[in-house]
Amino acid sequence: MTISAAPEKAASSPRATIDAAGWLGLAVAPTCALMAWISAVGSPGMTMCSAASAFAPINDMALMYVLMSLFHLSPWLKLLSARSQHTTTPVTQTEGD
């Protein structure tokens, strides 16, 4: 038994996968930043995973989420870099226009 996909569906599938991966890559940094804030500000009853010491103003989970957020900033930096290059590119008009 042979199963074949429609040609137009097969052609659009890799692009959709790339777009979904791009959106997920952009979603990681703000999600981790939000989780860091939640675990740092969390209520006093939420101390099941952390043993906050008097020396560290931030608990271990919040620190982990902050580091994850920093490590996943590269898609945002690439996006901002591409936008800044696009906006600083001079628009030249040719004689025929």
Task: Describe how the helices and strands are arranged.
Blueprint: H1 7-41, H2 60-71, H3 74-88
Keywords: Membrane, Transmembrane, Transmembrane helix
Transmembrane segments: 21-42, 62-80
Question: Could you walk me through the main structural features you see in this protein, from its secondary elements to its overall organization?
Answer:
Keywords: Membrane, Transmembrane, Transmembrane helix. The chain crosses the membrane at residues 21-42, 62-80. The protein is mainly alpha-helical and 97 residues long. 6% of the residues are buried. Helix 1 (7-41) runs antiparallel to helix 2. The chain has three helices and no strands. The longest helix is centred in the first third of the chain and has 35 residues, at 7-41.
The global form is elongated
Oligomer: single chain
Q: Which structural class best describes the helix and strand composition? A: mainly alpha
**What low-confidence regions span 5 or more consecutive residues with pLDDT below 50?**
none
Largest sheet: none
Q: Give me the Rg, rounded.
A: 23 Å
What percent strand?
under 5%
What is the average per-residue confidence, as pLDDT, rounded to a whole number? 75
N-C termini distance:
58 Å
Q: How many strands?
A: 0
Order of H and E elements: HHH
Share of helix, binned = 55-70%
Count up the helices.
Answer: 3
